Amino acid sequence: MLTTDRKEFFEEGVKISISQIEERGLSGFDKRKNKLVNALEALRELEGCDLALLVVTDISTHDSLILASGDPALLEALPYENRDGVFIAPGVVSRKKQVFPAVWGACRSAASKISATA
pLDDT digits over 30-70, tens only? Predict the structure, then answer.
């Protein structure tokens, strides 16, 4: 499921994976959350990514929920509200035009924190 619609980005030594699933309604998300988080963490480790995201987009409301796995400094820098490990992204539907630019900006701002702890 995570590899069906997945893109990798490699910028300035940071490898990011962003998968996207489009749904009509998000009512079943909570039941699948733990399974998706485990799969996302396994994918990140297998692919050697610094950050892996799963964007679950409700195509009827044009909102997304984002699961993320990666370096804590990168996760903390993400520009979305974090509710119990789920990032809330209202109005976000495009991985290329909305998610990647926001995530890449967060990665760049977090780079100093990561290199300071390395």
Answer: 899 999 999 999 999 999 999 999 999 999 999 999 999 99
Closest CA to 14 of 113, 114, 107: 107
Q: End-to-end alpha-carbon separation of the chain, Å? A: 33
Report pTM. 0.89
Q: How distant, in Å, are the alpha carbons of 9, 49, 51, 96, 101 from that of 13?
A: 10, 10, 12, 19, 16
Query: If 0-12 CB within 10 Å is exposed, 13-18 middle and 19+ buried, where does residue 98 land?
Result: middle
Residue 27 DSSP one-character state: T
* Under 8 Å between Cβ of 83 and 68: no
d(CA 118, CA 110): 13
Residue identified by tokens 């993320």 is 68
Give CA 82 to chain center in angstroms: 12
Which alpha helices (DSSP H) does 10-117 contain, by range?
29-47, 72-77, 100-117
Q: What is the DSSP letter of 110?
A: H
